[in-house]
Design a protein that fits this description.
Elements: E1 5-10, E2 17-23, E3 26-30, E4 32-34, H1 47-52, E5 58-61, H2 62-67, H3 71-76, H4 80-84, E6 90-93, H5 96-101, E7 104-109, E8 112-116, E9 123-126, H6 128-138, E10 142-144, H7 156-179, E11 188-193, H8 199-210, E12 216-219, H9 228-238, E13 248-250, H10 256-264, E14 269-271, H11 274-279, E15 283-284, E16 291-292, H12 318-327, H13 330-357, H14 360-379
Parallel strand pairs: 4-14, 5-6, 6-10, 10-11, 11-12, 12-13, 13-14
Antiparallel strand pairs: 1-2, 2-3, 7-8, 8-9, 15-16
Helix pairs in contact: 6-7, 7-8, 8-9, 10-13, 10-14, 12-13, 13-14
C-alpha cells in the first residue's frame, strides 16, 4: 500500500471505497467532493466559508491562473495557498480541458497544444513541460497531467489517437515531475484515462497508465454531452482497471445521484461547478430534489430550505432567500453557494459513514429514490 493513500474499507455489495489521502497540506478523507476555485476563488465564498462548510480540498485551474495573474506572479507571492489564503490541499487541473473547450484555433500536436487565449487572442502553447512547470509554480498538492479529451461523439480512430497521445504526455509529465523534484517533495501527479465510449480503449488507457505507477488516477472525458447511462458505463469500464491502492477521481461531475452511483463504481474524488453555478441563479439542492427559489410559491414560505439539512443558510426562510435572489442581492449568491456546497460535501461524508457501517448499497439506493421522487413531485407543482 502506498504511503500517501490508505484504503480503509471496501463495500462488500458494491465497489465503494473508504480511503484516506495524505498531501503536503493535510489529509483528505474519501469519498470526497471538492469545491471548484477556478481562478483562485470559490465564487462568492471566502476561505473561512469554505472551511466552515467542511471542505477538505479545493480545485484551481492551470489554464485560467496562467493566463491571469500568471503562475510566475503566484510563485513570486508565495504560491497559490498563500495567494488565496487557503491552507488546505489544492488540486489543479492541467488546463487541457479548457484548451479544448474554450480556446480558439487550437492546434493539437504531438508535443502539446498551440492555441489562442479566449481572453485576448494571444498565441500560447501548453505541453507537458509547460503544464508541470505552471503547477509547480502554483505549489499544487495534486497536479494533473496534460491529456487530450476527445469530443463526444467521436470516431474510434480519433479516440485511439487521443488515448495514445495522452499516454505519451503522461509519461513525459512523470519524467518532468521526477527530474525537478516535484514528486520527491511530496506533491502528487494524477494521470487521466480517456477512451470516450469505447470500452476496450478505456481499459487500454487505464492499464497503460497504471504501469506508470503515479500517485493517483482520473477518469476523463465523461460528462461531455453523452447521456447519463453512457457516462456511468464509461466510468464502469475504466475503474476496474485502475490500481486498487491509488485514489480514483472523476473530473467535472455530477449531480448528487450521479456522485452516489459513481461511488458505488469505486470512485473516490469528485469536483463540479454545478452546485455553485446554479446557486447564483437561485437553485438549491435538498434530499427531496432541487428547488428553484425563484418560484412564486416560495414568496411567503417561512420554512428553511430543508428540515433535514443544517448549515448557516438553513437558519433563513425560503421567503427571505427568494427575496434576496429576486432582488439580485450579492448575499443570495453567497448564502445559496454555502448551502449547495455544504450539501455536496455532507453527502460524501454520509457516504463515508455508510461504507464504514457496511450498508452503503441499500442506503444510496434509498437516498436516490427519495431525491428523484421529490424532484418529480416538485416538477409537478408540489412541495
Amino acid at each position: 500500500m502506498p504511503e500517501h493513500f490508505q484504503l480503509l474499507k471496501t463495500d462488500t455489495a458494491t465497489a465503494a471505497r473508504r480511503g484516506r489521502l495524505k498531501t503536503r497540506h493535510g489529509v483528505v478523507d474519501t469519498p470526497i467532493f471538492m469545491p471548484v476555485g477556478t481562478q483562485g476563488t470559490v465564487k462568492a465564498l471566502t476561505p473561512a466559508h469554505i472551511k466552515e462548510i467542511g471542505a477538505q480540498i479545493i480545485l484551481g485551474n492551470t489554464y485560467h491562473l496562467n493566463l491571469r495573474p500568471t503562475s510566475e506572479l503566484v510563485k513570486e507571492l508565495g504560491g497559490l495557498h498563500r495567494f488565496m489564503g487557503w491552507d488546505g490541499p489544492i488540486l489543479t487541473d492541467s488546463g487541457g480541458f479548457q484548451v479544448f473547450s474554450l480556446a480558439k484555433l487550437r492546434d493539437i500536436r504531438d508535443d502539446g497544444v498551440a492555441f489562442q487565449s479566449h481572453l485576448d487572442g494571444a498565441k500560447l502553447f501548453l505541453g507537458p513541460r509547460e503544464v508541470m512547470t505552471i503547477q509547480a509554480n502554483l505549489g499544487s498538492d495534486i497536479a494533473m497531467v496534460l491529456d487530450e479529451c476527445p469530443p463526444w461523439p467521436c470516431t474510434r480512430e480519433e479516440c485511439a489517437r487521443a488515448v495514445e497521445r495522452s499516454l505519451r504526455w503522461a509519461k513525459q509529465c512523470k519524467e518532468i515531475a521526477t527530474d525537478n523534484g516535484f514528486l520527491a517533495n511530496g506533491h502528487h501527479v494524477f494521470a487521466i484515462a480517456q477512451g470516450s465510449t469505447f470500452d476496450d480503449l478505456r481499459r487500454e488507457a487505464a492499464e497503460s497508465l497504471a504501469a506508470l505507477d503515479l500517485p493517483g488516477y482520473a477518469v476523463g472525458g465523461v460528462s461531455v454531452g453523452e447521456p447519463e447511462p453512457e457516462m456511468l458505463k464509461q466510468v464502469a469500464a475504466t475503474t476496474p482497471f485502475m490500481p486498487a491502492d491509488k485514489p480514483r477521481y472523476t473530473m467535472g461531475l455530477g449531480t448528487p445521484p450521479q456522485i452516489l452511483k459513481m461511488i458505488a463504481l469505486g470512485v473516490d474524488m469528485f469536483d463540479c461547478v454545478l452546485p455553485s453555478r446554479v446557486a447564483r441563479n437561485g437553485l438549491v439542492f435538498t434530499p427531496d430534489g432541487p428547488m428553484n427559489l425563484r418560484n412564486e410559491k416560495y414568496r411567503a414560505d417561512p420554512r428553511p430550505i430543508s428540515e433535514d439539512v443544517h448549515n448557516y443558510t438553513t437558519q433563513f426562510s425560503r421567503a427571505y432567500l427568494r427575496h434576496l435572489t429576486i432582488a439580485g442581492e450579492m448575499l443570495s449568491g453567497t448564502l445559496l453557494t454555502i448551502h449547495n456546497l455544504h450539501f455536496f460535501i455532507d453527502l460524501t461524508a454520509q457516504a463515508r459513514a455508510h461504507i464504514e457501517a457496511g450498508d452503503y448499497d441499500s442506503w444510496h439506493r434509498a437516498w436516490i429514490a427519495r431525491y428523484e421522487a421529490g424532484a418529480a413531485e416538485r416538477l409537478a407543482g408540489g412541495r
